[in-house]
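Quarterly update from the structural biology core.
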Amino acid sequence: MRWRAAWDGDVAWALRRSPGFLLSFALLVLLVAAALLADVIAPHRPFDLATLDLLDARLPPAWAAEGSAKYLLGTDGQGRDVLSALMFGLRISLAVGLVATAISLVIGVTLGLVAGYLGGWVDALLMRVCDVMLSFPPILVALLIDGVGRALLPQAHDSLALAVLIAAIALTGWVPYARTVRGSTMVERRKDYVSAARLIGVPGGRIMRRHVLPNVMGPVLVLATLQVGTAILIEATLSYLGVGVPATSPSLGTLIRIGNELLLSGDWWISVFPGLVLVLATLSINGMGDALRDALNPRLR
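Predicted structure, tokenized:
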């Protein structure tokens, strides 16, 4: 019944009538399907060394004069199929972006609720921490955290290195959630339903969790949608700089960096296609976020 009510609600109706949302959603579904089904639909296994042939290295796309129908988008300097590498790389980029955004959301919403509801010195302390975080570019903070993590754990397994990368992105992305939720909570805590809950002795934690939180999640959902695209771009930037995803499981940023080394040699397809997929993924997510923001604003419907 809840899903039916949500489907028939004003927000869902506005989203169904938004061409931008439908186009972005369709594109994102296509990209996610390609990433999730890479093991099934990818024509090659680009990271399996036993299947690579250096004689096929740096082949142009299939429609070029020297291209091969075996490799639709060409190959890189090691003979890996670019199309297959894109599917596997997109899976890693999307996973890092979604997990990092989820962690940032939990941290930011929790701290924002506490700061907005309690106020006083707690609010002042948390907001000063937010001001400090905002004074540094996210890329530099992520580089610092990632560098410290790799220095402390130089022999870390690839999965642990990936966790350090996710932590670096998450710890730079919680501030917008905290500030947004804090402002909305300060408005909600003055309303009658919160005062009534206090009068009957409802604990503060339950008031924040059961009453205030559902009423401040609208802006948070929009922010989270946009933040996924930002997290993917930060991951791609870190991977491009060589401190992101391990080389054994490269993401889109790593593929762009590899292709950039051969760009001046005329092998444009090695970096252009990963860059194009990165742009499409970011645009589709941001397009959905913009449409969701408009749908949640009654003045724009």
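Residues 62 and 69 are 5 Å apart (CA to CA).
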